[in-house]
Amino acid sequence: MNYFRKISVGILASLSIFYSADVLAGSNSFSRNATSGRPARIAVYHSWDPQTCRSLSATMNVLSKPSHGVLIPRVVPHVITTSRFGTVQNCVGKPIKALQIDYKSTPEFRGTDTFAIDVTFGWEGRRDTDTYTMTVQ
């Protein structure tokens, strides 16, 4: 079953979230901690035009859902500090819109949960796949 949810972040940019049953190997692996039943920030994804420093579109595809919780996407204000692609240049300190992903386990769950996200960034269509391992206490 596919789910689609689009979150608008302004005139020049939008973030789309796709959920699918496909599972792919991650190119980056991260470990995060969470408290059972409480939202925990997992990542903030952002993309901008390196010439104008304005927000660009980004697409997130959930490749494998967490088994014991949910992902909560939301648009948040963000200030440019670094980039995994090295394209910060004159944009450091500029405000943009970003997609924050929170994880919330089912109440009373304790243990390990995993999920994978594929993100396509608006600038030059760069893509990355991130796999998260959650330790829920």
Order of helices and strands: EEEEEEEEE
- On the 0 to 100 scale, the average pLDDT is 78
Provide the spatial order of strands within the biggest beta sheet: 1-2-5-8-9-3
Find the CATH topology: Immunoglobulin-like
N-end to C-end Cα span:
30 Å
What is the overall shape?
A: elongated
Q: Work out the strand percent.
A: over 45%
| Unreliable sequence segments | 1-26
How many β strands by DSSP?
A: 9
Count of the domains: 1
Rounded to an integer in angstroms, the radius of gyration calculated over CA atoms is 15 Å
Q: Return the CATH class.
A: Mainly Beta
Helix-strand category: mainly beta
Q: What portion of residues is helical? A: under 10%
Q: Which CATH-level-2 architecture?
A: Sandwich
Largest sheet, in brief, is: 6 strands, mixed
Walk me through what this model shows.
The chain is mostly beta strands. The chain has a single domain (3-136), classed as Immunoglobulin-like (Sandwich). It is built from no helices and nine strands. It has strands spanning 3-8, 14-19, 28-34, 40-45, 58-64, 69-79, 95-105, 111-121, 127-136. It has a six-stranded mixed β-sheet, with no helix packed on it. A three-stranded antiparallel β-sheet has the order 4-7-6, with no helix packed on it. The protein is elongated and about 45 Å long.
What are its keywords?
single chain, 137 residues, Immunoglobulin-like, 3-stranded antiparallel β-sheet, elongated, disordered N terminus
